[in-house]
Design brief:
The protein is of the alpha+beta class and 639 residues long. It has two domains: 142 residues, no CATH class; 412 residues, Peptidase S8/S53 domain (Rossmann fold, 3-Layer(aba) Sandwich), CATH 3.40.50.200. 23% of the residues lie in helices and 20% in strands. The chain has 14 helices and 29 strands. The strands form nine sheets. Strands 12, 13, 14, 15, 17, 21, 22 and 25 form an eight-stranded mixed β-sheet that branches. A five-stranded antiparallel β-sheet has the order 1-5-6-4-10. It has a three-stranded antiparallel β-sheet with strand order 3-7-8, with no helix packed on it. Helix 7 links the parallel strand 13 and strand 14. The radius of gyration is 24 Å and the shape is globular.
């Protein structure tokens, strides 16, 4: 991880007193973090050499973070007098900056452990402290052992420790320390000959062709085959989408893609020429993050499928509203979720999470041929809606890492941005159908459900998938997606249940108790997901010069984001603010009738039928699918 010019020598210009710290050495260390899951395809090859030097980053605990949910509810709940009164970036930074007490205690610990004041640096906003040290010094400081891991297929290496400890009276002042336990469970793009997509879960699957249904009912010609082939017209009919003509010039909608995943211009035009002719020749507004490129060298479904899908349907639904493509990561190192967050919030680069070598691309890229420019910090204002069709298993993220990133989504909500993530394509299982063992670790023979992150973060809107049931029409109720993929859903093993969701989840567990025990899912009262759904089966896309069908919550997220963008346009044209964090609204009684309740299907996985879609919210399809014609006037009725 590198923070170019972001750290200054302690005491020079950060407003921190250079008086001797009051901290006294205590010998009692406690484990602060341990690796969330041991990697399945990596082996320990050797101890990391003790003389190697590492930039140790210490993320300080943030003030007021325990109030983040209440603060977000104040600007997001439909009954709040503060609804829609979103914050400024300056308010966010000032509110959550670490305390002087935390700074004093952590610096005192480092000095009393043998580090000189001249070697202790701090980020300008005081969120991070850095010391450059040898591996041997860090191992002594953190009571840890660093090992080198080698990927069995590619030979790529990375390093880390399984656990690390800090003094018990220092722990409350620290969120996380890196590089330590965080581990990238997939090799980087530079070493993978058949790269399958950054992130994994959210990307669509392909099908050999449309499925035949002999029982199709007579419907208007454009909608005759929506149970076999979903198009823009099918979605407009399914979700009562009114004719859309943008009225605001200030609306924004961003879609995140990770290099080397990239769209092909010819694919967009192939799709648009058939389904939205006025868009032929149109392209998204491209923001290149951390040396990103929209590459065309590698062309196949695995390289073009996700981006083609997201843009063809996102652009097609909100036309002529512009789409912003947040293309993230260079061709050598790639990127993770933190990288695009850096680009929309400069404080995140050095404040609450930064970039973790095991999870994210590190810029300037130290690898040969990598991007040598500075990391992209705050290069674009957060779009009002951001859709990301990628995710990772929650079990591969440490609780500290997951919470720190989740808090950033909450802060973007305070700023007025709606964040959508796909809920996953393997039902109650994780990426590739992997489940957990009794200790909560990924295991090919595991039976415990494996939820998806960031979908489990309570400050994002998680999108599940539905389908037009075979033989049915767009005028009949949908079911949970059970073709090729199963809508990801379940309960978090990290995040507690948020206030806005308590009534819905309690009702589900009481009135429709699942036939599972705590040996299979977290029954202690945790965040349930998804929040809402949209169709995720049989999407027709232009891909590599031809039409194919794709499936997945990858389809659901950009479609739901398009509908929220339409709602924002109506509010902005009416002189109001965008909707921002929508979860408190969509769970409210006022909006219940604006969603189509899904009561058929399930999300099997881990050798079980999974959960079942039923009346009200459920951990398969959330509150249901949107009725846009009902949602627009309801959102317009809010301040």
């Amino acid at each position: 991880m590198r923070f170019p010019l972001a750290f200054v020598v302690l005491g020079l210009s950060v407003g921190f007193s250079v008086a001797a710290p009051s901290y006294t050495i205590h010998s009692h260390h406690v484990v602060h973090e341990k690796r969330a899951a041991e990697p399945l395809d990596w082996v320990v090859s050797r101890r990391l050499e003790g003389h190697k030097r590492l930039p140790l980053r210490i993320g300080l605990a943030q003030r007021n973070i325990h109030n983040l949910e209440d603060m977000l509810m104040a600007v997001s709940h439909p009954e709040s007098p503060e609804y829609g009164k979103h914050w400024t970036p300056e308010q966010v930074v000032d509110t959550f900056a670490p305390s002087e007490e935390s700074i004093r205690n952590v610096v005192g610990w480092l000095e009393n452990s043998g580090f000189s004041r001249d070697n202790i640096k701090m980020s300008a906003n005081k969120g991070w402290i850095q010391v450059d040290a040898t591996v041997a010094q860090i191992e002594e400081l953190l009571d840890a052992e660093y090992h080198v891991y080698t990927h069995m297929e590619t030979g790529e290496e990375q390093f880390g420790c399984q656990t690390y400890s800090v003094p018990s009276d220092i722990r409350e002042h620290i969120d996380l320390i890196k590089p330590t336990v965080h581990f990238n469970h997939r090799p980087s793009p530079k070493s993978v000959t058949k790269f399958k997509r950054a992130g994994g879960l959210g990307a669509p699957s392909s099908s050999t062709g449309p499925k035949q249904s002999p029982n199709a009912k007579p419907v208007p010609p454009a909608l005759a085959n929506c149970d076999e082939m979903i198009t823009l017209d099918c979605l407009r009919a399914l979700y009562s989408v009114p004719d859309f003509t943008p009225k605001s010039k200030h609306n924004t909608y961003g879609i995140v893609e990770f290099t080397p995943q990239a769209f092909l211009a010819g694919d967009l035009d192939l799709f648009f020429s058939n389904f939205s002719p006025s868009l032929v020749g149109a392209r998204p507004e491209i923001v290149l993050i951390d040396g990103a490129v929209v590459q065309t060298t590698n062309q196949s479904f695995d390289f073009n499928g996700e981006s083609d899908l997201d843009l063809e349907y996102g652009m097609g639904l909100v036309n002529p509203q512009k789409i912003t493509l947040l293309q993230t990561g260079d061709l050598v190192e790639g990127a993770g979720f933190d990288n695009w967050l850096d680009a929309v919030d400069a404080s995140f680069c050095t404040f609450e999470g930064g970039d973790i070598a095991s999870q994210d691309g590190i810029y300037p890229d130290p690898l040969p041929g990598g991007f040598k420019g500075p990391e992209s910090c705050g290069i674009i204002a957060p779009p009002f809606v951001v859709s990301t069709s990628y995710s990772q298993d929650e079990s591969t993220a440490t609780p500290f890492y997951a919470r720190r990133q989740c808090n950033e989504y909450g802060k973007l909500g305070l700023l007025g941005t709606t964040i959508l993530y796909s809920s996953g394509d393997d039902g109650v299982a994780g990426n590739g159908g992997v489940c957990l063992n009794s200790t909560g670790l990924p295991d090919p023979n595991g039976t415990m459900f494996n939820p998806s992150f960031p979908a489990t973060c309570p400050f994002v809107t998680a999108a599940g998938a539905t389908q037009v049931n075979p033989g049915s029409t767009v005028f009949e109720p949908e079911g949970a997606c059970e073709q090729v993929i199963f809508s990801g859903g379940g309960f978090s093993n990290i995040f507690p249940i948020p206030e806005y969701q308590k009534s819905a989840v309690t009702s589900f567990l009481k009135n429709h108790p699942p036939p599972f025990t705590s040996a299979q899912f977290n029954t202690s009262g945790s965040r349930g997901f998804p929040d809402l759904s949209a169709n995720g089966a049989n999407y027709v896309i232009g891909i590599d010069g031809e039409f194919e069908l794709v499936f997945g919550t990858s389809c659901s997220s950009p479609v739901a984001g398009s509908f929220i963008t339409m709602i924002n346009d109506a509010r902005l044209a009416d002189g109001k603010r965008p909707v921002g964090f929508i979860n408190p609204v969509i769970y409210s009684d006022l909006f219940r009738e604006a969603f189509n309740d899904i009561t058929m299907g399930g999300n099997q996985g881990c050798n079980t039928p999974g959960f079942t879609a039923t009346e009200g919210w459920d951990p398969v399809t959330g509150v249901g699918t949107p009725n846009v014609s009902k949602l627009i006037p309801l959102f317009l009725s809010l301040p």
